[in-house]
Amino acid sequence: MAISGRLKAFLDGAKVKYAAARHPVAYTAQEIAAAQHVPGRQLAKSVLIITDRGPVLAVLPASYLIDLKKLKAFLRAKKLTIGKEAGIKERFPDIEVGAMSPFGNLYDVPVVVDRSLEAAEHIVFNGGSHTDTIKLRYRDFSALAKPKAGAFSLTPPRAPAKKKARAGRPSAKRARSTARPRTPARRSTKHR
Length: 192
What we know:
This protein has one domain (about 5-155): YbaK/aminoacyl-tRNA synthetase-associated domain (YbaK protein). Helix content is about 25%, strand content about 25%. It has helices at about 5-15, 30-35, 70-75, 85-90, 140-145, 170-180, and strands spanning about 20, 45-50, 55-60, 65, 80, 110-115, 120-125, 130-135, 150, 155. It has a five-stranded mixed beta sheet, covered by helices on one side. The chain has a three-stranded antiparallel beta sheet with strand order 1-8-7. The chain has a two-stranded antiparallel ribbon with strand order 4-10. Mean pLDDT is about 80; it is low at about 170-190.
């Protein structure tokens, strides 16, 4: 499947510059980012959210997670759940499940975007299939989708920094390897 015809017609009609690209089949946002050689913070993932006030498409960097409590407060919703596969197929009938673009407005679904994505000059996102992406300036996305921006993500945990050995002192590993070899403890030869 190629880029969604609805999305292509919308972008072409808006006369914005964008670049379409193909990649091997990828299902997760992080796999897509790796296949397209873009940082996870630049790849926009879209998550269908169902609230007591209706559906919403939450858009955030691929490497971030949704903080459901923050999102619930931001949307002023009483109830909030992540959309199920059947609901996604029903709302977005011309795309592959899980390959939604951030243009929920094309399907009468309001869009909210996490402010952390605003820092990207360009964003990359699914084009309606698990093999096609689109690269577009963030400001063009914002002008076309008219998302409500807020803070509702959790940043990914950072890997602990590696400790450097202090100058003049061997690292613990090296110190052990240069120390005298340990002799095994002697076993008692007495029997009871």
